[in-house]
Amino acid sequence: MGEEFNASKPIYFQLAERINRQILRKELQAGDKLPSVREMAIQSGVNPNTVQRTYSELERMGIVETKRGQGTFVTENESILVELRERLKEEQISSFVDDMKEMGFTVEEMMKGLEEHIRAREGNKA
Amino acid sequence: MIEFKNVSKRYWKHQALTDVTFTLPSGKIIGIVGENGSGKSTTLKLMAGLIRPTKGTVIVNGVPMDRRMAKAVSYLSELDVYYPFTVEETIQFYASQFADFSLERADEIVAFMKLDRKKRVKSLSKGSRGRLKMVLTLAREAPVILMDEPFSGLDPMVRDAIVKSLISFLDIEHRTIVITTHELKEIEPLLDMAVALKEGELIGIRDVEELRDDENLSIVDWMKQQYE
Protein backbone atom coordinates (compact mmCIF):
# COMPACT_ATOMS: atom_id res chain seq x y z
CA MET A 1 0.00 0.00 0.00
CA GLY A 2 2.96 2.31 -0.59
CA GLU A 3 4.47 4.07 2.38
CA GLU A 4 2.76 4.36 5.73
CA PHE A 5 1.11 7.59 6.79
CA ASN A 6 1.82 9.42 9.99
CA ALA A 7 -1.08 9.19 12.46
CA SER A 8 -1.81 12.82 13.24
CA LYS A 9 -1.42 14.92 10.08
CA PRO A 10 -4.13 14.86 7.41
CA ILE A 11 -3.46 12.31 4.69
CA TYR A 12 -4.09 14.78 1.85
CA PHE A 13 -1.38 16.97 3.38
CA GLN A 14 1.14 14.12 3.70
CA LEU A 15 0.49 13.13 0.11
CA ALA A 16 1.08 16.74 -0.99
CA GLU A 17 4.37 16.75 0.96
CA ARG A 18 5.47 13.58 -0.85
CA ILE A 19 4.74 15.14 -4.21
CA ASN A 20 6.60 18.32 -3.21
CA ARG A 21 9.63 16.25 -2.29
CA GLN A 22 9.49 14.43 -5.61
CA ILE A 23 9.54 17.83 -7.29
CA LEU A 24 12.54 18.97 -5.23
CA ARG A 25 14.41 15.77 -6.11
CA LYS A 26 13.53 16.43 -9.78
CA GLU A 27 11.75 13.08 -10.03
CA LEU A 28 8.90 15.29 -11.15
CA GLN A 29 10.06 18.18 -13.30
CA ALA A 30 8.44 21.43 -14.40
CA GLY A 31 5.73 20.58 -16.93
CA ASP A 32 5.57 16.87 -16.03
CA LYS A 33 2.16 15.22 -15.83
CA LEU A 34 1.08 13.82 -12.46
CA PRO A 35 -0.68 10.44 -12.36
CA SER A 36 -4.48 10.72 -12.67
CA VAL A 37 -6.39 10.90 -9.41
CA ARG A 38 -7.37 7.25 -9.71
CA GLU A 39 -3.86 6.06 -10.61
CA MET A 40 -2.42 7.98 -7.68
CA ALA A 41 -5.11 6.54 -5.39
CA ILE A 42 -4.27 2.99 -6.49
CA GLN A 43 -0.50 3.54 -6.16
CA SER A 44 -0.77 4.94 -2.65
CA GLY A 45 -3.81 2.99 -1.37
CA VAL A 46 -5.52 6.28 -0.60
CA ASN A 47 -9.16 7.26 -1.09
CA PRO A 48 -9.63 9.04 -4.46
CA ASN A 49 -11.49 11.90 -2.72
CA THR A 50 -8.37 12.47 -0.61
CA VAL A 51 -6.11 12.47 -3.69
CA GLN A 52 -8.46 14.99 -5.31
CA ARG A 53 -8.06 17.20 -2.27
CA THR A 54 -4.26 16.89 -2.48
CA TYR A 55 -4.33 18.00 -6.11
CA SER A 56 -6.69 20.90 -5.34
CA GLU A 57 -4.42 22.03 -2.52
CA LEU A 58 -1.30 21.88 -4.71
CA GLU A 59 -3.18 23.80 -7.37
CA ARG A 60 -4.19 26.46 -4.87
CA MET A 61 -0.50 26.85 -3.98
CA GLY A 62 0.36 27.21 -7.68
CA ILE A 63 2.60 24.13 -7.65
CA VAL A 64 0.47 22.21 -10.16
CA GLU A 65 -1.95 23.24 -12.88
CA THR A 66 -4.97 21.33 -14.09
CA LYS A 67 -5.56 21.48 -17.82
CA ARG A 68 -9.12 20.58 -18.72
CA GLY A 69 -9.37 17.15 -20.27
CA GLN A 70 -5.60 16.62 -20.10
CA GLY A 71 -4.73 16.15 -16.47
CA THR A 72 -2.62 17.75 -13.76
CA PHE A 73 0.88 19.08 -14.48
CA VAL A 74 3.77 20.46 -12.42
CA THR A 75 3.88 24.23 -12.97
CA GLU A 76 6.41 25.63 -15.42
CA ASN A 77 6.67 28.77 -13.35
CA GLU A 78 10.23 28.34 -12.03
CA SER A 79 9.89 31.06 -9.41
CA ILE A 80 7.15 29.07 -7.64
CA LEU A 81 9.38 25.98 -7.62
CA VAL A 82 12.34 27.98 -6.27
CA GLU A 83 10.05 29.39 -3.58
CA LEU A 84 8.84 25.88 -2.72
CA ARG A 85 12.42 24.69 -2.36
CA GLU A 86 13.29 27.60 -0.06
CA ARG A 87 10.14 27.14 2.00
CA LEU A 88 10.70 23.43 2.62
CA LYS A 89 14.34 24.11 3.53
CA GLU A 90 13.26 26.82 5.96
CA GLU A 91 10.63 24.53 7.54
CA GLN A 92 13.07 21.68 8.01
CA ILE A 93 15.75 23.91 9.56
CA SER A 94 13.28 25.61 11.82
CA SER A 95 11.97 22.34 13.20
CA PHE A 96 15.55 21.12 13.73
CA VAL A 97 16.47 24.30 15.60
CA ASP A 98 13.29 24.14 17.71
CA ASP A 99 14.02 20.55 18.71
CA MET A 100 17.63 21.29 19.56
CA LYS A 101 16.65 24.33 21.64
CA GLU A 102 14.08 22.29 23.46
CA MET A 103 16.85 19.88 24.43
CA GLY A 104 18.97 22.77 25.67
CA PHE A 105 21.63 23.00 22.96
CA THR A 106 23.23 26.36 22.23
CA VAL A 107 23.54 27.82 18.73
CA GLU A 108 27.31 27.16 18.81
CA GLU A 109 26.76 23.51 19.71
CA MET A 110 24.24 23.15 16.91
CA MET A 111 26.53 24.66 14.29
CA LYS A 112 29.53 22.64 15.48
CA GLY A 113 27.49 19.43 15.69
CA LEU A 114 26.09 19.95 12.23
CA GLU A 115 29.49 20.61 10.71
CA GLU A 116 31.04 17.57 12.38
CA HIS A 117 28.15 15.36 11.37
CA ILE A 118 28.31 16.41 7.74
CA ARG A 119 32.08 16.09 7.63
CA ALA A 120 31.88 12.55 9.08
CA ARG A 121 29.23 11.57 6.54
CA GLU A 122 31.12 12.96 3.59
CA GLY A 123 34.25 11.28 4.94
CA ASN A 124 32.49 7.92 5.05
CA LYS A 125 31.46 8.32 1.45
CA ALA A 126 35.00 9.09 0.23
CA MET B 1 -27.54 7.49 0.77
CA ILE B 2 -28.35 5.38 3.81
CA GLU B 3 -30.49 6.66 6.68
CA PHE B 4 -31.04 5.05 10.08
CA LYS B 5 -33.88 6.59 12.08
CA ASN B 6 -34.01 5.52 15.72
CA VAL B 7 -33.07 1.99 14.79
CA SER B 8 -32.98 -0.73 17.46
CA LYS B 9 -32.40 -4.41 16.96
CA ARG B 10 -33.06 -7.11 19.50
CA TYR B 11 -32.20 -10.78 19.05
CA TRP B 12 -34.23 -12.77 21.57
CA LYS B 13 -32.78 -11.46 24.86
CA HIS B 14 -29.78 -9.72 23.39
CA GLN B 15 -29.98 -6.00 22.54
CA ALA B 16 -27.70 -5.65 19.50
CA LEU B 17 -28.44 -2.01 18.56
CA THR B 18 -30.09 0.74 20.59
CA ASP B 19 -31.76 3.81 19.07
CA VAL B 20 -29.22 4.51 16.35
CA THR B 21 -29.75 7.50 14.05
CA PHE B 22 -27.39 8.60 11.28
CA THR B 23 -27.19 9.51 7.58
CA LEU B 24 -24.42 8.21 5.32
CA PRO B 25 -23.92 10.15 2.06
CA SER B 26 -23.15 8.61 -1.31
CA GLY B 27 -19.82 9.16 -3.06
CA LYS B 28 -17.87 8.10 0.00
CA ILE B 29 -16.14 5.10 1.53
CA ILE B 30 -17.37 4.71 5.09
CA GLY B 31 -15.95 2.48 7.80
CA ILE B 32 -18.01 1.07 10.65
CA VAL B 33 -15.70 0.56 13.59
CA GLY B 34 -15.97 -0.81 17.10
CA GLU B 35 -15.05 -3.76 19.31
CA ASN B 36 -16.40 -7.25 18.86
CA GLY B 37 -20.09 -7.28 19.77
CA SER B 38 -20.50 -3.51 19.27
CA GLY B 39 -23.15 -4.03 16.57
CA LYS B 40 -21.11 -3.58 13.37
CA SER B 41 -22.37 -6.66 11.53
CA THR B 42 -25.94 -6.10 12.70
CA THR B 43 -25.80 -2.56 11.30
CA LEU B 44 -24.56 -3.86 7.95
CA LYS B 45 -27.19 -6.61 7.78
CA LEU B 46 -29.89 -4.03 8.45
CA MET B 47 -28.56 -1.93 5.55
CA ALA B 48 -28.57 -5.02 3.35
CA GLY B 49 -32.20 -5.80 4.25
CA LEU B 50 -31.14 -9.21 5.53
CA ILE B 51 -32.68 -8.54 8.94
CA ARG B 52 -35.42 -6.14 10.05
CA PRO B 53 -35.15 -3.55 12.78
CA THR B 54 -37.08 -4.22 15.97
CA LYS B 55 -37.81 -0.48 16.10
CA GLY B 56 -37.15 2.42 13.75
CA THR B 57 -36.57 2.59 9.98
CA VAL B 58 -33.70 1.96 7.59
CA ILE B 59 -33.95 3.92 4.34
CA VAL B 60 -31.63 3.23 1.41
CA ASN B 61 -31.66 5.76 -1.44
CA GLY B 62 -35.06 7.00 -0.35
CA VAL B 63 -36.73 3.57 -0.07
CA PRO B 64 -37.46 1.75 3.21
CA MET B 65 -35.30 -1.34 3.31
CA ASP B 66 -36.65 -4.87 3.29
CA ARG B 67 -35.70 -8.24 1.83
CA ARG B 68 -37.08 -7.33 -1.62
CA MET B 69 -34.84 -4.27 -1.74
CA ALA B 70 -31.76 -6.44 -1.29
CA LYS B 71 -31.22 -6.33 -5.04
CA ALA B 72 -30.17 -2.67 -4.75
CA VAL B 73 -27.34 -3.70 -2.45
CA SER B 74 -24.18 -5.69 -3.08
CA TYR B 75 -23.32 -7.41 0.20
CA LEU B 76 -20.10 -9.22 1.04
CA SER B 77 -20.62 -11.60 3.93
CA GLU B 78 -18.09 -12.24 6.63
CA LEU B 79 -18.74 -15.95 6.19
CA ASP B 80 -17.43 -18.19 3.47
CA VAL B 81 -19.90 -20.34 1.59
CA TYR B 82 -18.63 -23.54 0.03
CA TYR B 83 -20.78 -24.36 -2.92
CA PRO B 84 -19.44 -27.33 -4.86
CA PHE B 85 -18.58 -24.93 -7.67
CA THR B 86 -15.50 -23.80 -9.50
CA VAL B 87 -14.55 -20.11 -9.58
CA GLU B 88 -16.07 -19.84 -13.06
CA GLU B 89 -19.33 -21.56 -12.05
CA THR B 90 -19.65 -19.34 -8.99
CA ILE B 91 -19.33 -16.24 -11.16
CA GLN B 92 -21.91 -17.60 -13.61
CA PHE B 93 -24.23 -18.40 -10.72
CA TYR B 94 -24.00 -14.84 -9.40
CA ALA B 95 -24.56 -13.48 -12.90
CA SER B 96 -27.77 -15.54 -13.10
CA GLN B 97 -28.99 -14.25 -9.73
CA PHE B 98 -28.31 -10.53 -10.06
CA ALA B 99 -29.52 -8.51 -13.05
CA ASP B 100 -26.86 -5.86 -12.40
CA PHE B 101 -23.94 -8.33 -12.44
CA SER B 102 -21.40 -7.41 -15.14
CA LEU B 103 -19.55 -10.45 -16.49
CA GLU B 104 -17.19 -8.14 -18.32
CA ARG B 105 -16.17 -6.42 -15.12
CA ALA B 106 -15.95 -9.77 -13.32
CA ASP B 107 -13.43 -10.85 -15.99
CA GLU B 108 -11.33 -7.75 -15.40
CA ILE B 109 -11.30 -8.24 -11.64
CA VAL B 110 -10.52 -11.98 -11.93
CA ALA B 111 -7.53 -11.05 -14.10
CA PHE B 112 -6.46 -8.34 -11.66
CA MET B 113 -6.75 -10.78 -8.73
CA LYS B 114 -4.95 -13.54 -10.68
CA LEU B 115 -7.60 -16.12 -9.82
CA ASP B 116 -7.69 -19.51 -11.51
CA ARG B 117 -11.19 -19.94 -12.98
CA LYS B 118 -11.06 -23.72 -13.10
CA LYS B 119 -10.29 -24.23 -9.43
CA ARG B 120 -12.95 -25.44 -7.04
CA VAL B 121 -13.90 -22.84 -4.45
CA LYS B 122 -13.44 -25.49 -1.76
CA SER B 123 -9.78 -25.94 -2.69
CA LEU B 124 -8.93 -22.22 -2.74
CA SER B 125 -6.70 -20.70 -0.08
CA LYS B 126 -8.28 -18.28 2.36
CA GLY B 127 -6.64 -15.39 0.52
CA SER B 128 -8.03 -16.53 -2.82
CA ARG B 129 -11.51 -16.95 -1.34
CA GLY B 130 -11.23 -13.37 -0.07
CA ARG B 131 -10.29 -12.28 -3.59
CA LEU B 132 -13.18 -14.22 -5.14
CA LYS B 133 -15.62 -12.58 -2.73
CA MET B 134 -14.36 -9.19 -3.89
CA VAL B 135 -14.93 -10.19 -7.53
CA LEU B 136 -18.51 -11.18 -6.72
CA THR B 137 -19.17 -7.98 -4.77
CA LEU B 138 -17.52 -5.47 -7.10
CA ALA B 139 -18.84 -6.91 -10.38
CA ARG B 140 -22.33 -5.67 -9.54
CA GLU B 141 -23.58 -2.22 -10.54
CA ALA B 142 -25.49 -1.83 -7.25
CA PRO B 143 -25.53 1.75 -5.87
CA VAL B 144 -24.79 0.43 -2.37
CA ILE B 145 -21.80 -1.81 -1.62
CA LEU B 146 -21.59 -3.36 1.84
CA MET B 147 -18.61 -5.39 3.01
CA ASP B 148 -18.49 -7.22 6.32
CA GLU B 149 -14.86 -7.63 7.43
CA PRO B 150 -13.44 -8.06 3.92
CA PHE B 151 -9.85 -7.99 5.25
CA SER B 152 -10.24 -10.23 8.25
CA GLY B 153 -7.59 -12.94 8.53
CA LEU B 154 -5.96 -12.04 5.21
CA ASP B 155 -2.26 -11.34 4.81
CA PRO B 156 -1.01 -7.85 3.84
CA MET B 157 -0.53 -8.82 0.17
CA VAL B 158 -4.16 -9.85 -0.19
CA ARG B 159 -5.31 -6.80 1.76
CA ASP B 160 -3.35 -4.60 -0.59
CA ALA B 161 -4.88 -6.31 -3.65
CA ILE B 162 -8.35 -5.83 -2.18
CA VAL B 163 -7.81 -2.13 -1.46
CA LYS B 164 -6.44 -1.58 -4.96
CA SER B 165 -9.32 -3.46 -6.58
CA LEU B 166 -11.76 -1.32 -4.62
CA ILE B 167 -10.23 1.89 -5.93
CA SER B 168 -9.73 0.56 -9.47
CA PHE B 169 -13.11 -0.98 -10.10
CA LEU B 170 -15.59 1.17 -8.18
CA ASP B 171 -16.85 4.51 -9.48
CA ILE B 172 -16.98 5.78 -5.92
CA GLU B 173 -18.71 9.04 -6.80
CA HIS B 174 -21.88 7.12 -7.69
CA ARG B 175 -21.90 4.63 -4.81
CA THR B 176 -22.24 4.38 -1.10
CA ILE B 177 -19.58 2.00 0.18
CA VAL B 178 -19.70 0.75 3.75
CA ILE B 179 -17.03 -1.50 5.27
CA THR B 180 -16.85 -3.01 8.75
CA THR B 181 -13.31 -3.68 9.83
CA HIS B 182 -10.86 -4.45 12.60
CA GLU B 183 -7.88 -3.62 10.41
CA LEU B 184 -8.39 0.07 11.02
CA LYS B 185 -4.84 1.29 10.91
CA GLU B 186 -4.11 -0.21 7.50
CA ILE B 187 -7.44 0.82 6.03
CA GLU B 188 -7.73 4.36 7.31
CA PRO B 189 -6.24 6.03 4.18
CA LEU B 190 -9.05 4.38 2.22
CA LEU B 191 -11.87 5.84 4.34
CA ASP B 192 -13.73 9.14 4.04
CA MET B 193 -15.76 8.69 7.20
CA ALA B 194 -15.93 6.48 10.25
CA VAL B 195 -18.98 5.48 12.27
CA ALA B 196 -18.03 4.32 15.75
CA LEU B 197 -20.23 1.90 17.70
CA LYS B 198 -19.95 0.75 21.27
CA GLU B 199 -22.21 -1.82 22.90
CA GLY B 200 -24.88 -1.25 20.27
CA GLU B 201 -24.89 2.53 20.53
CA LEU B 202 -23.60 5.14 18.14
CA ILE B 203 -20.75 6.99 19.85
CA GLY B 204 -19.62 9.14 16.96
CA ILE B 205 -19.49 9.73 13.24
CA ARG B 206 -16.55 11.65 11.83
CA ASP B 207 -14.85 12.72 8.62
CA VAL B 208 -11.40 11.10 8.70
CA GLU B 209 -9.46 14.07 7.33
CA GLU B 210 -11.34 16.63 9.43
CA LEU B 211 -10.46 14.65 12.53
CA ARG B 212 -6.78 14.89 11.62
CA ASP B 213 -7.08 18.54 10.62
CA ASP B 214 -8.98 19.69 13.72
CA GLU B 215 -7.73 17.38 16.44
CA ASN B 216 -4.57 15.75 15.07
CA LEU B 217 -6.14 12.36 15.67
CA SER B 218 -6.16 9.24 13.56
CA ILE B 219 -9.29 7.10 13.68
CA VAL B 220 -7.48 4.60 15.89
CA ASP B 221 -6.57 7.32 18.42
CA TRP B 222 -10.07 8.77 18.28
CA MET B 223 -11.59 5.33 18.90
CA LYS B 224 -9.36 4.85 21.94
CA GLN B 225 -10.60 8.18 23.32
CA GLN B 226 -14.23 7.23 22.72
CA TYR B 227 -13.76 3.89 24.44
CA GLU B 228 -12.10 5.32 27.53
- Count up the helices of chain B: 8
Q: What is the top-level CATH class of the largest domain in chain A?
A: Mainly Alpha
CATH class of chain B, anyone? Alpha Beta
Percent strand of chain A equals 5-15%
Shape of chain B: globular
Q: What is the spatial order of strands in the main beta sheet of chain B?
A: 6-7-8-3-9-10
Low-pLDDT segments of chain A: none
Number of domains of chain B: 1
- Number of domain modules of chain A: 2
* The CATH H-level homologous superfamily of chain B: P-loop containing nucleotide triphosphate hydrolases
Tell me the total number of β-strands of chain A: 2
CATH architectural name of chain B: 3-Layer(aba) Sandwich
Largest interface summary: A-B, 19 and 26 residues
Distance separating the two termini of chain B = 31 Å
How are the strands ordered across the major sheet of chain A? 1-2
Strand and helix map with partners:
The complex is a heterodimer of chains A (126) and B (228).
Chain A: H1 11-24, H2 37-44, H3 48-60, E1 64-67, E2 71-74, H4 78-102, H5 107-125
Antiparallel strand pairs in A: 1-2
Helix pairs in contact in A: 1-3, 2-3
Chain B: E1 2-11, E2 14-24, E3 28-33, H1 40-48, E4 55-60, E5 63-64, E6 73-76, H2 87-97, H3 103-113, H4 126-138, E7 144-148, H5 156-169, E8 176-180, H6 184-187, E9 193-198, E10 201-207, H7 208-215, H8 219-227
Parallel strand pairs in B: 3-8, 3-9, 6-7, 7-8
Antiparallel strand pairs in B: 1-2, 1-4, 4-5, 9-10
